[in-house]
Amino acid sequence: MTYWDAHIETMNRKEMNELQLKRLQKSAKTVYQNVPFYRRRFDELGVKPEDIKTLADISKLPQTTKYDFTDNYPYGLFAAPMEDIIRIHSSSGTSGKPKVVGYTKNDIDIWADLLARNFTMVGINKHDIFQNSVNYGLFTGGLGIHNGIERVGATAVPAGTGNTLRQLEMMIDFGVTAIHCTPSYALYLAETAVENDLVDKLKLKTGCLGAEAWSDNMRKSIEEMLNIKAYDSYGLSEMFGPGIAFECPEQNGMHIWDDHFFVEVLDKNGEQVSEGEKGELVLTSLTKEGLISIRYRTGDITRLLEPECSCGRCSTRISRLIGRADDMITVRGINVYPTQIQDVISKIPEVTNQFQIILTRNNKRLDEMTVQVELQKDAFTDDLLKLDRIQKNVVAQLMNVLNVRTTVELLEFGSIERTGGKSKRIIDKREAI
Ligand SMILES: [Zn+2]
């Protein structure tokens, strides 16, 4: 078995807990001193960093949510001075404003190291040619994964997104052996390769797939079509980005790295669930400097698994994600919250604040989002040009905030059922493949 960092990856529980306690105390002290938001939250609960004497004392600390990011947009949660922040990334937020995260040099370094640890775990090394087929913008999957590829010593091919035949051509010409992309794109890539009779020309062995939930059936299809092993990668920008948890060759649950994160899986009452039970994944960053999240409620539902794994690693293990605690949806790898849509349309005078989201998958297996909105009574008209203008305006405003292309359908006033619950706002017709 090859490890990137055998000492840490196989560290016994007692030693790891000691390391975690030391790091937790330091994180709590830093946010209390440097972040007014945290100082206020600690004070409200009457807790001081010195009250953390054991790991169980973490339950005394305040929990944080995505709303705390948007409320403190853009830099309010940063725990290091701006002159020490060398990069920012962001991801979509809940009310139109994105969640912004800042990294110190040390953060970027640790993040690359974590990814190298994951890549080594699935057999990727300096002999690999590794294509990163995700967006290289503010999204953490581009530059984040890229740094990890270079750290492990493989050859990075920063392909970005788009033009699938060209992507396949690059894979063939460059002798690509590993790829990072979303699972739905991997499936589309596989289908395109099969259709064009290119599979035999590929040298691909390993897929690192993340940024959206995918089923075991989908994994099987991707693996069979491309003749590779495909591994689940979990991450969130609030904790660096991708690389927080990753599958090992057992492909049976994910290792989540205790030296950098304190893991809680909490039930509805905020109690830690027992092994095998499901709950919400709540994470505390133990080594970050730029942005330290304390008891961050990820919104992701998972199960706590037994820590022993045949691969020999001793980390906490969680199941692949079961779902979301809230109603966030993922469209082409981008997180979309219905509240964002609500926000946008509430500012457009010609439409009501009733809407419905319809999700489908097109013949390229890519997500399509249609948003149905209602015209105000007095906005209804036979003038097609006028309607067209309203429709185009809604499309543009949504694109602006969501960063996902949407189709907009204008409906007559009263067409959308009024309901107290928000679940009916989303009609997800994307089949679990
Ligand atoms: Zn393992």
From TrEMBL:
Pathway of action: Aromatic compound metabolism
InterPro entries: Adenylate-forming_Reductase, AMP-bd_C_sf, AMP-dep_Lig_C, AMP-dep_synth/lig_dom, ANL_N_sf, PA_CoA_ligase
Residue ranges annotated for the AMP-dependent synthetase/ligase domain, each copy included: 54-283
A GO MF label: nucleotide binding
Pfam families with a match to the protein in the record: AMP-binding, AMP-binding_C_2
GO-annotated biological processes: phenylacetate catabolic process
AMP-dependent ligase C-terminal domain sequence ranges: 333-430
EC number: 6.2.1.30
Keyword DNA-binding tagged: no
Leading EC class: ligase
Ribosomal protein is among the record's keywords: no
Tree of life domain: Archaea
Keywords (A to Z) from UniProt: Ligase, Nucleotide-binding, Phosphopantetheine, Phosphoprotein
Transmembrane regions: none
Subunit structure: Monomer.
Protein name stated in the entry: Phenylacetate-coenzyme A ligase
Species the sequence originates in: Methanolapillus africanus
